[in-house]
Specification:
By secondary structure, this protein is mainly beta. The chain has a single domain, classed as Galactose-binding domain-like (Jelly Rolls, Sandwich), CATH 2.60.120.260. The chain contains no helices and ten strands.
Length: 101
């Protein structure tokens, strides 16, 4: 609990982006996410059935709030994505990306 990771991604152009994470975790996990200095909130990554040994263990997480996608207006250049483990439960990350909308 409290373990944190930060990634730096470089966007080639300004635009509207949504955060997506390909992950696996057996029983679900709670994470808070921040991009640059903007707190996106706390999110639940639903259990996928395993830690990624099987292809079926993997799923995609999209940042949404109130059933609506969180779309970020971001300039070109580097952006920091910060994720904190809020419940001490493990999960594996395959990739994290900002997808242009």
């Amino acid at each position: 609990e409290g373990h944190a990771l930060t990634w730096t991604l470089k966007l080639p152009e300004a635009g509207r982006y949504q955060l997506v994470v390909r992950y696996s975790c057996p029983n679900g996990a709670q994470r808070s996410i921040r991009i640059n200095d903007q707190d996106l909130g706390s999110f639940y990554f639903f259990g996928t059935g395993g830690f990624g040994d099987l292809e079926s263990d993997w799923d995609h997480f999209y940042c949404v709030r109130n059933a609506q996608p969180i779309i970020l207006e971001l300039p070109a250049g580097e952006h920091r994505i910060h994720m904190v483990n809020e419940d001490g439960k493990g999960n594996n990350l395959d990739y994290i990306a900002l997808i242009k909308k």
